[in-house]
Amino acid sequence: MGRWSFNAPAHAGWFMPAEWWPHTRCWMAWPYRESLWRELLEPVKKDVAAVAQAIAEFEPVSMIAPPASAKEAAQACGGKIAIVALPIDDCWTRDTGPTFLVNDKGECAGTAWGFNGWGGKYKPYADDARLAGRLLAELNLPAFEAPLVVEGGNLCADGEGALLTAESAVVNPNRRAGMQRDQAEEILGAYLGVKQVIWLPGNKADTVTDGHIDGIACFCRPGGAIVKSCG
Predict the structure, then answer these.
(1) How many domains does the chain divide into?
(2) Measuring CA to CA, which residue among 94, 115, 136, 106 is closest to residue 17?
(3) Distance from C-alpha of 198 to C-alpha of 67, rounded to nearest angstrom
């Protein structure tokens, strides 16, 4: 795996599980910034609370909320949803939260990626950039800080060593100037415990995320994927 391997989680046996593997809970975050959501803020709050309540019928849900909004989030979401007060900028935990890792002992850790507001498009993002590390510290889990700007929505693993990702949102000057694909692949392998990175071109027409993989394709089983198409 090269120069990253000995200080990275893969060397210690950590790896990214598939999304369909059993997990302890779902993590979400509370929308609160009027400057971002404007007239949509109140409807979005209602929708986020409704989604959390629906998921909570099947598994535990934790809602991250900035301290000043924690009471509001608790009242909106109801008693089934656990509120975790941490500073955040926005509510996209799939992109800003840690990539949780597991090992063969059933233990859990996490990779904290660099985050720069989807290539500097949305500011401020300083608290979102720190969210992964803060959450892992809150959970008292081992944390691995990766030297790569990448969002969780652009990572899809099959749990058996393969990873799907989109080149347009990884090897992009607005994420990591000068980063070459082979360098990014080495880091992804070292910090996710994957042996094969499957690169899709991505979607450059997506001006928000620069073409995350979660809008293109995902593994549905080891060796099998579902691909989105427009008819």
Answers:
(1) 1
(2) 106
(3) 40
Cis preceding-peptide flag for 124 (omega within 30 of 0):
yes
Closest listed residue to residue 172, CA positions, set 119, 124, 212, 94: 119
What is d(CA 120, CA 136) in angstroms, rounded to the nearest whole number?
A: 24
From residue 43, how far is each of 2, 27, 37, 125 by CA, in Å? 48, 20, 10, 23
Q: Are 179 and 148 in contact (CB under 8 A)?
A: yes
Helix (H, G, I), strand (E, B) or coil at 218: strand
Q: pLDDT tens digits for 73-127?
A: 999 999 999 999 999 999 999 999 999 999 999 999 999 999 999 999 999 999 9
Cα separation, 152 vs 9, in Å, equals: 17
Sheet holding 156-157, edge to edge: 156-157, 162-166, 196-200
Structural domain including 205 reads 5-227
- AA identity, residue 24: T
Distance of CA 216 to the CA centre of its chain: 16
DSSP state of 18: P
Q: Say yes or no to pLDDT of 230 above 80.
A: no
- Closest to 108 measured CA to CA, from 143, 149, 147: 143
Q: What is the CATH number of the domain that holds 98?
A: 3.75.10.10
pLDDT tens for each residue of 141-194: 999 999 999 999 999 999 999 999 999 999 999 998 778 999 999 999 999 999
Confidence of residue 231 (pLDDT cuts 50, 70, 90): low
